[in-house]
Predict the 3D structure of the following.
Amino acid sequence: MNVYVIVPEGISLNDNNQIIPSFVFRQVLEYLSNILQKDSKVYFAPANNFNTKYFEQNIGLQYLLEILKKKNMRCQTFVAKSNINNYIDTMLNAKLLLDQYPNLKDIHVELVCAKLHSKRAKFCFENIGFKIKTTHKIEIEVIKEKIVSRLWYYQYPIIHKVYEYLAFIRDIFLVKFLGKLL
């Protein structure tokens, strides 16, 4: 049995102004749907609502279930709740998921996220206490769409890469030099 941990990757609006997973998150979930087996378990880390009524992890779950229904597939899914009012970054994604599902500390998991985010996500999740068996690094094709303003840089791969690099330096600094996980 494989246990997958999904790092939410943002939300967007479609042409009907309905909230959907961002183009990054959709491609991550589509990749996941192609590797899932029926005894797989999928955990969605808690994330943000970007001032809407909908949280990334719930939107992602709905999208994944729609894909699996079309493929006549099922798997066990677990969705962590976002129970704080602050912005939830990658380190906090990991901490809140482990707080709600402490059993994940005792098993090896497969981390699934965008390639640009993967090195930092692995660092954050491992420093919180996850045992990462493998990291699935999904190559993303940029699609122009109405993404939430907080994630504007997703539309610009070079800027996105710089953002991830700087955020990774911040996370390393917090963990290694200040001894803080958050």
